[in-house]
Amino acid sequence: MSARALKLFLSEQYDFVVDKCTLIVHNVSDTYLVEATNKKYIFKIYRDAHRSYDEIMGEVELLNFYINNGASVSYPVKDVSGNFLQSLNAAEGIRYGVMFSYAEGKPVYAMNDKQLKLVGIEMAKLHILSSKVTLKHKRKEYSIQSTLLNPIKVIKPAFVEMDEEYEVLCEIVNNTVSKMSKLDFSKFSYGYCQYDFLPKNFHFKGSEKLTFFDFDFSGKGYLINDIMSFYIHFFLEVYYKKMTREEADRCFTIFLEAYRLVKPVSDEEINSIKYFGLGFWIFYFGFHVENFDDWSNIFFTPNFIKSRIPLIQNWMEY
After folding, report:
1. The pTM is what?
2. SS3 of residue 202 by DSSP
């Protein structure tokens, strides 16, 4: 949507004058930086093919619960009428938008020890809250079915003339499902996962202030999923030779020790990261296919697909 037109629209809807509105991400959701006098906001416009009204309200409900209970998150902002959602007419029908508080600071990919401890402490606090709340609005559930078995079927049409690669992936998935069926999930913490705890989704202001944002993928599941997605950051740093394995392991250990100061997590949960991580890769593989028109048509090519196979194999061996 036109950022210029949105600037005028948002000035009418909220109790502040919008000085500037700039598109910063065009994706399955479109994200705009909104600048008012001495303050910044983020305005996000969802696509119906990606998020229903009820799902968006679930995200709003979850974030309000977090902020009201002291969590450090970007939160939804009400308009002059007390509403969180804006309805916008688009060619494909109604699209909904939400204004969020701005997460001060910036992403840090090479975190120092103090910052690693802060992530561990704040994630654990978030997990204590997420395991207590039951939302009125429905959110996605992350399970073996939704992260492995369904997506592996969804992605099959993308493997045209790549039968061998698809068979390799199916074998990895089937072996993982078999191993996960033997885990005692009664001892795993359960709640609402953020499911994308990579450094791009939280900002540091120095080493003292941390704010989590982008809960678009939040859904019910085992909370080890969030620890897993943070671990994936270190795996990728090693995979692309930006960090040694020794340093990656040291950083993750610092984070984990800080997390355990606030909330327990068992060794069995940590040892299952390998399997939940495969679910992460396969889930987003399916997401590429299902949202091809709105997100991945620029990069989702045969070369990209082929490059994902050795990455996943490396993950399973890592």
Report:
1. 0.96
2. strand
Handedness of CA 141, 146, 151, 154 (dihedral sign): negative
Q: What share of the chain is helix, strand, coil (3-state, %, to 5)?
A: 50, 20, 30
Tell me the CA end-to-end span of the chain in Å, nearest whole number: 43
Q: Note whether 281 and 308 are within 8 A (CB).
A: yes
Q: What are phi and psi of 73, to 5 degrees?
A: -135, 155
| Residue spans of alpha helices (H) in 69-219 | 113-130, 144, 150-154, 163-180
Question: What is the enclosing helix (H) or strand (E) of 253?
Answer: helix 245-262
Query: pLDDT by residue (tens digit) across 57-113?
Result: 999 999 999 999 999 999 999 999 999 999 999 988 999 999 999 999 999 999 999
Which residues are bridge partners to 23 per DSSP?
32
What is the token pair recorded at 79? 């308009």
Burial class (CB in 10 A: 0-12, 13-18, 19+), 93: exposed
Q: Which of these, 145, 147, 160, lies nearest to 277 by C-alpha position? A: 147
Phi, psi of 27 (to 5 degrees): -150, -160
Q: What residues have CB less than 8 Å from 279, skipping those under 6 apart?
A: 142, 144, 147, 148, 176, 225
Name 54's Cβ contacts closer than 8 Å, sequence gap at least 6: 137, 138
Instruction: Write out the two tokens for 104.
Output: 């001060």
Strands 93-101 and 76-77: antiparallel
